Every structure is written in C-alpha cells, then in structure tokens.
Amino acid sequence: xxxxxxxxxxxxxxxxxxxxxxxxxxxxxxxxxxxxxxxxxxxxxxxxxxxxxxxxxxxxxxxxxxxxxxxxxxxxxxxxxxxxxxxxxxxxxxxxxxxxxxxxxxxxxxxxxxxxxxxxxxxxxxxxxxxxxxxxxxxxxxxxxxxxxxxxxxxxxxxxxxxxxxxxxxxxxxxxxxxxxxxxxxxxxxxxxxxxxxxxxxxxxxxxxxxxxxxxxxxxxxxxxxxxxxxxxxxxxxxxxxxxxxxxxxxxxxxxxxxxxxxxxx
DNA sequence: CTAATTCCCTGGAAGC
DNA sequence: TGCTTCCAGGGAATTA
Length: 266
Prior knowledge:
alpha+beta, N-terminal domain of MutM-like DNA repair proteins, 2 domains, four-stranded antiparallel sheet, 10 strands, 22% strand, DNA-binding
C-alpha cells in the first residue's frame, strides 16, 4: 500500500524524468477514480517546474497550475517509453517531449488525478492538513491534540488534521516502537515525545529502504519500486513478538485492524 | 463542534 | 475445480 514512504520514493523516482520536460498530451482510459479525472486539463505545452509532495499527494507544478496526484490504495506511477501498450488498470498517461511517459496504474481506483490553478495550499484537499511528520511535527503539538480530543491514540495519529502521512501500517509500527497501546486515550508529554519520535524513525527507515529499490523504478515489466517492509507487529496476529515472544494481538479500531504486543506496549 | 460510521473499488485468500 | 464470502485500506462524505 502506498503510504508516505512509498509516495516519497515515487516522487524521487519520477523527478529526474519529469523536471523540465514539456507535456505533449495526456490520455485518460478510465476517468472513474476517487473523483472523475477532468478531461479538459490545460496540460498540453506545459513545462513541469517541480515535483513536490504534501502528505500523500504528489504535486506536479506546471506553468499554469498544478497536477495533483494521489495513489489511493493501489496506485502506482511509472516512467515508460511512449510505445508500451496499456494494460487493464492503466487509467492515465502523461506523454512528454523527452520520449517518456508517466503512467498511472490503479486497480482499485481510490486514487486521484486533479488539476488546480492558483495557490495549491488553498485547495480544499490540502488546506486543512496537519504538519508533515518529518518537518514541523513535534511532541508539544501531539500533546496539545491528545488533551483536546477524546479518541484512541492510533486514530489520532492517523487523522490527517493532526499529522499527515501516517497510514494504518505505520501507525501500528510506530506505536510498538513507542511502547504505547493503540487504544490508549490519555498520554503524557513523555509518551507523546516517544511517539512523535517513533513516527519519524519509522517513516525515515521506510524511506531509506525504498531508496535501495529506486533503481527498479524505470522498468516496463517490473514493479514501480514499492518495497516489502519488515514489520514488528503489523499483520503478525498470533505470532510471537520479536522482542519478548508474547503473541501479537489484533483488534478493530474504527473499522481498521490494529496490532500490538500486550507485553511491550502499555 | 466532535466522534463514529459508511462508502468507493478490485484482487487475493479462505471457505464450501 | 469453481463458486461465494470476506478482507484489505485512504480518506471524504455522511450520520449520530
């Protein structure tokens, strides 16, 4: 699943192929993603100025506006030669003047391709987002939020208004590293500090792991460079904790699975 | 306002 | 073997 590290890895993989390129045209094969892909985006002739990431959104900034991309649950972006035939779930292509194209594949169609002109931070999807976890996010901010809300800590750190980019997998992993149970509601400043640090550590480690697979990014037959992460607790229900051997527990929180070690996490 | 729930979608695994 | 059922998840939209 593309979480923040996968999106960042994708951004780094795409950037050298996209920056400075001119958009010749685009193709929409199936516009039914999270929202319909606008058919009238004025992309033709635009030069790609930068490729940034905000939360899990990729922002492809052009002369006249920004192409907003989201990978949803199953989306991937690849750079391919122009003549590679599209397969079943290849919904959107961006054709460039350098002989390459960027292709979006998204079987479950939870992703998005949108166009926005003007200040990108004011876009409705971006304007209410909380801090980036690897930038301005810290213990004080988390502690203040914990005190002002009455929800389980796991759901809090997955709330994009609190901090962006923490998906279901890394939420469980970060809570394990911090020694905090996912259902906890009261958390002191020290606990918040451990958790904020664990979130940063977890995401950074995953981004670093992704870097080693970047060489596979441009590959017509291979995968787009996502990577298998070694998980402490996620998906390991009933298996022994790698720290203490206690069986990992699985619970439901807000229709999502959470995993934790009942001995290591209090 | 906050918190909880529903919904979009397909592929893969499990069950019969 | 082939069907049916369940589950996964981002996050906006909806409901309580």
